Amino acid sequence: MTETATQVERHGFGAEVGRLLDLVVHSLYSEREIFLRELVANAADAIDRRRFESLTHPALALPEAGTIRILPHKPDRTLTIADCGLGMSREELVDHLGTIARSGTRAFGQKLADAKPEERPSLIGQFGVGFYSAFMVADRVEVTSRKVGSDEAWTWASAGEGEFTIAPASREEPGTDVVLHIKADAEEYLDPLRLETIVRKWADHITIPITIERDGKDVPANEGTALWRKSRGEVTEAAYQEFYRHLGHLFDSPWATIHWHAEGALEFSALLFIPGSRPFEPVDHDRASKVRLHVRRMFITDEAELLPSWLRFVQGVVDTEDLPLNVSREMLQATPVLARIRRTVTNRVLTELRTRAKEAEAYAGFWENFGAVLKEGVWEDSEHRKDLAPLLRFRSSAVEGWTSLEDYIGRMKDGQEAIYILAGDDTAALARSAQLEGFRARGIEVLLLADPIDAFWPERLEEFDGKPIRSITQGAADLSKLPAGETPAGEPADVTALVAALKTALDKDVSEVRATDRLVESAVVLAAGTAGPDLQMQRLLRRAGRAGFVAPPVLEINPRHPLIVTLAEKLAAGGDVAGAGELLLDLARIQDGELPRDPAGFARRIEAALSGAAG
């Protein structure tokens, strides 16, 4: 087809995307061959999705020979990857190929620039930019596509230099052709034998037939073996790893491989992987599980939510004989068969985690990657809450590394009735918190929780092994029951009048002022009311604009601290402590990682105090 100036539309990627393309091309040079894996995987996905759509719309059925064809052509130095999948409309070409790294172009570029050379390949699949790896071997890429059900075809084309074009085209059948104009230094990718080696390495387990044109004939290039249908003894670790990398577009090794066949009233095969590293795209970007559902080896959907959202990091395939091939999305939601499969698969993953949790060092790596996601299950899944509790791990005020609730209970002091926690935004800051002083003085361990979900799940778990779980910002009363350590230096002042004066001065900012014995070095600390949420939850509510539902905090003062003793004496001598009360409250807020209520006013009060000290 001859393109005219009026037919061709020009679109700019944007300056940031131009820089990103440069990074993809040059920073991933050592893994050039993965471009073919990415393009073949995209073609396989398109064919799979057409198969699924055809179950409810027979007119969309695949042609009898539903293959992926790889066509090298040395004379004009082009490499074509052709499929008979769903195809793309003009709008979809612009949307999918004109918008790079939807999960965060700037973030991807920064990660790629900062990563070590050996880490860079794993960034491709994790940021959804696999298609653009084609520019590592091609100086121009053309994508001609015809959407199933449409007579129109369009060609997207770009040299990877900041812009692309869209023009009308023609294609006899629905599907997509990706044509790469191979660079002079990448001619090895026009050799059919070299291409077959790459396919065998990266895509041998794609169940769709792949052919490579050699001497005018299409030669089969992959076995198309459904690994999950084999017994575990038949599959090598190398084969598992290749399939894992194909399945999730990943480049690391799986932390765990779970492969089994369920037999009896319910029959299915499952091959699941727990990744060995955390993806660069946040795991809360999409909370739905993407484990693939197959029926008799045929892909049906990756939206069946075969695992709960708190196991969404698990990759894999579940293949069953107990569903009809023409199952619809509506049937999937209602069928009891799928509900039983979900329950069985979830329990199997939990069993694997329980087994591996016994290996503390290996489990620590998993927990650092996905612990925050797993804790969501404690909050939202009442059925599995008790199963998840033994799998939780925490930083602690008393021991190095990660610890479990069971280990914590084994270290509890005589007379200690509860498991104590302190939630915040940063573990290092929590370890220095004034909230810990009284507990440290008594040798009481506190678990330090720094994930956002940690403000929520303790409310649902409530207890473990008969021991209640309590935030120390609400647990001051318990300390009086525990044996004290060394007696703090200095005699406590009579602060009865000071407490009353501070309460009057801070009437609208605190719900109560009281003396406390849980401070050693600090003068003041904030606490939550016993009936309301703890301090971390209060902070989150304020950030969400819902502070109106939260009672003001309690201000606790240390009657042994020289500052408090001085203020008590000043008040007894007829002095005014109102200004000091505001300063004490701001100091307590700063200790908990918050800003003063009025930073400018706080600065003036500090200046006045320092001027008085200097004078």
Automatic annotation (TrEMBL):
ATP binds at E38, N42, D83, M88, S103, G104, Q126, F127, G128, V129, G130, F131, T176, R329. One of its GO terms (molecular function) is ATP hydrolysis activity. Residues 540-615 are annotated as: C. Keywords: ATP-binding, Chaperone, Cytoplasm, Nucleotide-binding, Stress response. Residues 1-329 are annotated as: A. Pfam families: HATPase_c_3 (PF13589), HSP90 (PF00183). Its main location: cytoplasm. InterPro entries: HATPase_C_sf, HSP90_C, Hsp90_fam, Hsp90_N, Ribosomal_Su5_D2-typ_SF. One of its GO terms (cellular component) is cytoplasm. It is found in: Cytoplasm. Belongs to the heat shock protein 90 family. Homodimer. Molecular chaperone. Has ATPase activity. This is Chaperone protein HtpG. The gene is htpG.
